[in-house]
Design goal:
The chain is α+β, with helices and mostly antiparallel strands. The chain has 7 helices and 8 strands.
Length: 213
């Protein structure tokens, strides 16, 4: 059967649960580091890193040798296992937001994991829909993992071979573009899966969390 491309529409629901606080660790900035890259590497909230380092006057400008505080939340720090496609989608989203003077979205490891599950589920069960036969709708899916959020918006797609192609398709859709550029959004997670009927499956969750979460 011939492969084809597909994207799906906005999904928007509400759910909230509290999250714990924790300690912090120090990190010495290396060559070519950015706060975005450091947040991605340490699985942390970008805005929390910014808030924890008031000495940084310009978050887009940090220097090798500079010491910054990484909020720990009591969790073990580890390098996330994310592929280039997921990282590129999140980079493109934040690049576009910065162009429009919008706050960048923080990487959320739990959202990444759920987005990966959704893309894999679409690939295995050969569908492109916000309502998963396995996980239900996006709110049900995140709620079942006890992920805290006020709102969740989901962009999905299939058949697009690269992150650039998928992102361009979303930006050419008013609904998907609005999701990515939502002014109240705070966090993002992305998942990519290759194979199946359409060859390539993409998911991003864009959520609004409380200031502490």
């Amino acid at each position: 059967m011939q492969k084809y491309k597909a994207i799906s529409i906005l999904f928007f629901l509400i759910f909230f649960t509290p999250q714990p606080a924790g300690a912090a660790v120090d990190y010495r900035v290396e060559q070519k580091d950015t706060l975005w890259g450091i947040a991605l590497r340490f699985q942390k909230d970008l805005q929390e890193i910014i808030n924890s380092n008031p000495q940084i006057e310009n978050p887009d400008l940090i220097f090798p040798g500079e010491m910054i505080i990484i909020p720990d939340h009591g969790k073990k720090i580890a390098i996330p296992k994310m592929g280039e496609n997921e990282n590129e989608l999140m980079r493109l989203a934040n690049e576009k937001r910065r162009e429009l003077s919008l706050k960048p979205l923080s990487v959320d490891l739990q959202l990444n994991a759920e987005a990966q599950k959704k893309s894999s589920d679409m690939m295995k069960l050969q569908y492109v829909s916000h309502n998963s036969p396995t996980y239900g709708n996006p709110t049900e899916m995140l709620r079942n993992q006890q992920i805290s959020f006020f709102t969740v918006k989901e962009n999905i797609g299939a058949g697009y071979k690269t992150a650039d192609e998928m992102f361009a398709a979303w930006m050419n859709s008013s609904v998907h573009r609005e999701n990515i550029l939502n002014k109240k959004a705070t966090h993002i997670g992305a998942g990519y899966c290759q194979g199946g009927l359409h060859g390539h499956y993409w998911t991003i969750f864009i959520v609004e969390k409380n200031e502490g979460g």
